[in-house]
Amino acid sequence: MKPTRTLWTALRLTLVLTVVLGIGYPLVVTAIGRVAFPAQAAGSLVRDDAGQVRGSALIGQSFLGSDGTPLPQYFQPRPSAAGYDAAASSGSNLGPEDAGLAAAVAQRRADVATFNAVREDQVPPDAVTASGSGLDPHISPQYAAIQVARVAAARGMTEDAVRALVAAHTQGRTLGFLGEPRVNVVTLNLALDG
Amino acid sequence: MGDGALAAANVAALAVVLAAAYRPLGDYLAHVFTSARHTRAEKVLYRAVGVDPEGRQPWPAYLRAVLAFSLAGLALLYLLLRTQHLLPGSLGLPALRPDLAFNTAVSFVANTNWQAYSPEQTVGYAVQAAGLAVQSFLSAAVSLAVAAALIRGLAARGASTTGPATTGPATTGTGTIGNFWVDVTRSTLRVLLPASVVVAVVLLAGGVVQNVAGFTDVTTIAGGTQTIPGGPVASQEAIKMLGTNGGGFFNANSAHPFENPTPWTNLFQVFLLLVIPVCLPRTLGTMVGDQRAGRVLLWTMAALFGLVYVSMTVFELAGAGTVPQLAGAALEGKEQRFGIVGSTLFATATSGTTGGAANSMHGSYTALGGMMLLLNMMMGEVAPGGAGSGAYAILVMVVIAVFLAALLLGRAPVYLGKRIGVRELQLVSVFILIMPTLALGGLAVSLGITPVRAQILAGTGNTGAHGLTEVMYAFVSAAVNNGSAFAGLSANTPWLNTTLGILILLGRFLPIAVVLALAGSFARQEPTTTTATTELPVHRPQFVGLLVALVLFVALPMFLPYLMLGPLAEGVGR
Questions:
Q1: What does the alpha-carbon distance between residue B250 and residue B252 come to, in Å, rounded to a whole number?
Q2: Three-class SS of residue B226?
Q3: Which residue in chain A has the smallest CA separation from B329?
Q4: Which of B181, B207, B333 sits opposite A58 (nearest CB)?
Q5: pLDDT score at B157
Q6: I need a surface site. Which of A41, B139, B266, B493 has the fewest CB within 10 A?
Q7: Is B330 within 8 Å of chain A by CB?
Q8: Which residues numbered 135-154 in A keep a CB inside 8 Å of some CB on B?
Q9: Is this prediction's ipTM beyond 0.95?
């Protein structure tokens, strides 16, 4: 083939495959999603009792007051490098020797301990580290456990009632070995309000 | 269950599903690359674009077709990125700057998917689906085609005239290595597209989103506001993993809950990254008619993968370093649902496959855990390497190993009946020098020019040794076409976009040119008729050991000084 003919062939093939792969394929998958898995395809949205969409079960939210302090009536999520801005996912990308991150971790440990009235050595690692996405909806069962008393007090509920709700929103390892045990803060807090 | 047992259970589950896929997928790929029949759709396509599917190409023609096809993809993608503001479904986003558009287009066409931008803030649905996802398919198809050509060269036997004209065993003497247009079309339409549809539906079931809803503003539970993104994510995620591309729909890539929502989708994504590279040895075995040849490659890949996974996991679980010690575990940059074990498994797979995806932030790994990521790339992406590119990279190492061992033992340097002569040796020597030269040369030039160095260092998210590691990681990742990052580095600058773009281009197409020349060289050879006693045995465990050692011996002397300045300086003694 002459060089120019090779180029034209390449261009024509690319264009045809762009139509198939770039338009046909995503539309087919979108159609399948809409029919077979409408809830997941739309983003696993969660609604309150009034039917209003209040977020996604997969995307973490911040539970801070207007002054930026954590609200005691809600379970608090992990720290987030993205400030739980779902339109700007991000981790901190700070390394293990970063002085600013080290100071922040120490500060978070002290703050979490004070806020929940527990000892600093009771604060688990996920409570003081930011996730990779900045949108992690989960915390460890340990972090949930140290928050139970504070949430119960703020809501005038019994600790057992709060603990039962936590248990209902806790997932273990899939098949016993995949991932880590976790509590979904978004669905748990929505249930507390409901 | 202890962490060690957890890690073992994860690897065992992965091994079981990969083992189940090995024979059927490997043989199916062999069938795709050797079948004489064209489907009706393919015939229509060949006629429409003006390809003679029965034509055979010697290696220079094959290479010209690879280059023309990639150039067309590059031009088209660049155009889409530069005219984004005019395209429908762009969510009101502006066109990309020329340097960023160049870097991004090169990166996706070269199966690297280095992303110097934050996708959800930079590219709309038109560019993602019709540009980036399309090149994720096509670049993977090109890699598969090149791997098929090399295997065909090794498999070429006798002057048979009965084989199918295009894709059957090439006849020796003519030196043809197949038909690029047929290889790339079949890789796309018979392998990647049907597999992606199935994978996308499975991911959808797991919670990966697929819509065209744009951004939705919601009032959060605590009464704030949050903007929930949408998009055709599942369809893009499928080919991102299957084609070892790694170009995420979102900035957080596979750490984002909409890309990778659950622990099982996480293991599934690791499987997707590995499945084609791991099954290609079977394809080699089937096409050359000797399954032992495939198994040797498989065990080598498995040994290197195990080496990286075990050491990285040990380092991350130990959690050395100031921040992990203060926090109680190395969880910075890792998702609660995956934990450390699920994060390092993904990281091992992505750094060993040119995948470049990430389910955890590599830059926040412990110093030595992060070093294993770097080392995995520095080993030349053979554990198990990218879909297609892994097969040809490890076959290059095999050629070197055969020659070395034959020299030591006084046997004939023959692999699968093909003699390894001066020309073959020259080609493989060039191949192994390309990546280190590009990575270290690019790094040296960039840090050698004072204003550029100042600008780069000002853009590192970390100071000291970790900052240097970020920069080093970027250059190695570009040169080896991986695309993952120690993402603290502000890579979206004209200098880095341009130099890394050029490195990605050279790091992609120079090795491909060498591999195709090697394929042509093998294809011309009549198989030797030496007896088994004079040939080197290349099917024994000893040969696997030699291959593993060779991969390390090639990588370490060149890169060790740099590792000492970066991760070792940061991590040793803590």
A1: 5
A2: strand
A3: A125
A4: B207
A5: 82
A6: B493
A7: yes
A8: 135-140
A9: yes
Query: How many CA atoms lie less than 13 Å away from B363 in the CB half-sphere?
Result: 32
Output the pLDDT for position B457: 87
B328–A124 C-beta distance less than 8 A: yes
Please say whether the beta carbons of A18 and B80 come within 8 A: no
Quick one: which of B473, B343, B10, B14 has its CA closest to A136? B343
Token digits for B2?
Answer: 């202890």
C-alpha to C-alpha distance for A140 and B389, rounded to whole angstroms: 40
Report the pLDDT value the prediction gives residue B574, as an integer from 0 to 100.
Answer: 63
**A-B contacts (CB, under 8 Å):** 377
In A, which residues are within 8 Å of B227 by CB distance? 85-87
Q: Which residue ranges in chain A fall short of pLDDT 70?
A: 1
Please check whether residue B108 touches A, CB under 8 A: no
B190 touches chain A (CB under 8 A): no
Of B75, B229, B366, the CB nearest to A87: B229
pLDDT at position A83: 95
A170 interaction partners in chain B (CB closer than 8 Å): none
- Rounded Cα–Cα distance for residues A146 and A154 (Å): 14
Q: Which residues of B touch A13 (CB under 8 A)?
A: 45, 49, 51, 69, 72, 181, 184-185
Residue among A164, A167, A157, A169 at smallest CA distance from A72: A157
- The string of DSSP letters for B69-120 reads HHHHHHHHHHHHHHTGGGSTT-TTPPPPPHHHHHHHHHHHHTT-----S-HH
**Residue range B98-138, pLDDT digits in tens:** 999 999 999 999 999 998 999 999 999 999 999 999 999 99
Q: Is B342 on the interface with A (CB under 8 A)?
A: yes
Distance CA B468, CA B438 (A): 17
- Asked if residues A183 and A138 have their Cβ atoms less than 8 Å apart, the reply is yes
Q: Which residue of B has its CA nearest to A78?
A: B336
- pLDDT beneath 70, residues of chain B: 158-173, 530-533, 573-574
Q: Note the pLDDT of residue B393.
A: 97
Q: A residues 19-58 near B, CB within 8 Å?
A: 20-23, 25-26, 28-30, 32-34, 36-37, 40-45, 48, 52-56, 58
Question: Which candidate from B48, B197, B328 shows the least CB-CB separation from A125?
Answer: B328
Supply the DSSP symbol for B526. Answer: P
**β-strand partners of A182:** A171
* B227/A86 Cβ within 8 A: yes
pLDDT tens-digit readout, B436-478 = 999 999 999 999 999 999 999 888 888 889 999 999 999 999 9
Cβ separation B9–A9 shorter than 8 A: no
Tell me what pLDDT residue A176 has.
94
Phi, psi of B528 (to 5 degrees): -70, 160
The pLDDT, as a whole number, for residue A2 is 74
B294, B281 in Cβ contact below 8 A?
yes
